[in-house]
Write a structure and sequence with these properties.
By secondary structure, the chain is mostly helical. It has a domain of about 220 residues: MetI-like (MetI-like fold). It contains 12 helices and no strands. The N and C termini lie close together (about 10 Å).
Amino acid sequence: MLNFILQRLLALVPLLFIVSLLVFSLVLIIPGDPAYMLAGEDATPEEIAAIRTDMGLDDPALVQYARWTAGVLRGDLGTSLFSDQPVLEVLLERLPVTISLAAAAIVFSLLISIPAGVIAGTRPGSVADRVVTLGASTGLAIPNFWLGLMLILIFAIWNGWLPATGYVPLSESPAAWLRHILLPAFTLGLSAAAILTRQLRGAMIDVMNQDYIRTARAKGLAWRFVVLKHGLKNAAIPMVTILGLQANYLLGGTVIVEQIFGMPGLGQLAVASVFTRDLPMIQGVVVMAVFVAVFVNLLVDISYGWFNPKVRPQ
């Protein structure tokens, strides 16, 4: 298992190199001069030129890339052009909000998809299967932004049961955190729950028709034991891969959801940075998002190797 983990870590090196090139290229691709934005509209050409020299923008692109990469490796992502704060400091303030939202959405999707997928997969063609299939199709068809607005309208504006916007850290008040996270997590996790439900349903139908399931039932084992011990355990293997893909999708989906619910996370920060053309902050958000996505994919690979020993190197 250790060799398997080391192989996955080594495979990340070329990926991170390519991603670093793409992230750095944002400075070269996005229109606008960072020195001009930092100097202000009333700055003279000489002042702008001096700022460009101080920022190293006149250096060759390769030199700028090497300097930027060295800074990233040291944990120095630069300083925000808009707030004059260290980029890493701002990111670490916003990251818990996004991670909290994505994790809550994943938990919600699993709480829905596992029982729904098992029920539908063990009773194909039944009324329960049709209801689950219809619900999954509906969940996939509903846009996140529309669902979020409807939830705010129903649960916050009309009835006042839950807050419409804002965020409270879990460490500050678990009850308040739960109240603020319910609507965004449901909005973000519904489509993931639908995808995981369909995946698990298909896998359960396939697994329950295998010979070892028939053998287990012929031995007189309880139906619930056969489903949970033999059926769900084997059907969950391909679900791990789908869950990893959905985790990355959920991280991207926080951009819209955080805007709708006014949550101060990385998604909201990314949108604000684009509008203010805060290039160091945009680069920092992308670097942080890539780091989280790579870490999630590594966990998925390790989990897949743990569930399915066949993929481990011999």
